[in-house]
Amino acid sequence: MITPGDIQRRALRHYYEWLEGIAAGAADFVPLVIKRTGDVRTIDEGRLETMDEVVANSKSKKGYGYNVILDSPGPRSINQQSRIAAIEIETAADLLQFLDKNHEFEQYQRSLALIQSNAAISGMVYSKCTGDMSLRRNLALIVIRAAFF
Questions:
Q1: What distance in Å separates the CA atoms of residue 95 and residue 70, rounded to the nearest whole number?
Q2: 122 in Cβ contact with 116 (< 8 Å)
Q3: Looking at the 3D structure of the chain, how many domains does it have?
């Protein structure tokens, strides 16, 4: 079953993919939907504790972060418990606040704007990054780590 730590790891991966997309020119945020939660309809004490923890850290309780989408049992189901069908982070603001990356994202935007506005820096960075696939994939991380001015 998915845990809050798993959700945070997947959200962090989505965050870096989003930054990579911004650096490539696709600035639109794509909501993160985690459909494979590993939740099954069984009566298990550990499952219930984990489910409570997931719900306690959700947007409905904290006001930001992820939404828990529950799948209600069928009318003829023996087990009358809901299960977690999916986890969804709808907006960029929710993702940034959930990961506590607001300041880092603002710095990233400033640094990327500086690179793009300066032709000499922009040409050097993009020529290096387009030739080497590992650099191109990590451009977002490079911009985050580098404090230009």
A1: 20
A2: yes
A3: 2
Q: Are residues 32 and 80 in the same domain?
A: yes
Specify whether 110 is located in the same domain as 95: no
Cα–Cα distance measured from residue 108 to residue 88, given in angstroms and rounded to the nearest whole number: 24
Bridge partners of 68?
87
pLDDT tens digit sequence for 13-36: 999 889 888 877 777 899 999 987
Whole-Å CA distances, 99 to 24, 42, 147: 22, 31, 20
Same domain assignment for residues 134 and 93: no
In this structure, the number of other CB atoms found within 10 A of the CB of residue 92 comes to 16
For 75, which DSSP code? T
pTM: 0.76
Structural domain of 138: 102-149
